[in-house]
Amino acid sequence: MVNDPIGDMLITLKNASRIKKAVVSVPYSKMKEAVANVLVKEGFLSSVEVKGKKVTNKVLAMVLAEKLDKTIRLTDVRRISKPGCRVYSPVQDLNKSKRGIMVVSTSEGLLTNKQAMVKKLGGELLFAIW
Prior knowledge:
Layout (H helix, E strand, L loop, with lengths): L4 H14 L4 E5 L2 H12 L3 E7 L7 E6 L12 E3 L8 E2 L11 E6 L2 E4 H6 L4 E7 L1
Antiparallel strand pairs: 1-3, 2-3, 4-8, 5-8, 6-7, 6-8
């Protein structure tokens, strides 16, 4: 059995946006917090907060961002690199996103495809979100 905590977090965000739920909580990990911080910078989430003190009780509470007409900004998400099939891309191929952004795991941390192109870094394509 393969676990995909990043995929689970993304699907939780997608499902919450579809039922118009404003706040979502998922179990904490450093990688999930890094992904959430990228989504805050890109405007898909309003805020991220780590709740709890012990490692086993930590939770990542995320507030979904809204547009001006009170609809949730996050429309859909697609996981690209999965635990069973990792997908890596050189910097030349990062401009293939038709809509939204792609999040790339690089040697300098998690970046969007546009930030990675500016820094001329390739890496693992984690997911696309729009």
